[in-house]
Amino acid sequence: MRLFRERLLARLVEKQRILEHLGLSEPEDERPPPPDIRYVPVDDEGREITAFS
Length: 53
Hints:
Blueprint lengths: L1 H21 L31
């Protein structure tokens, strides 16, 4: 079973290299930007702490 997986992986890599060489490979999927996460300070009871200026 291990030999089968190794051969399959080798064939997939070889196929990808050939397609890239010919300029026929699919473009890589771009990852979306990470979400904008903002942390809000909370008190002991879980209520948001607001700053007064």
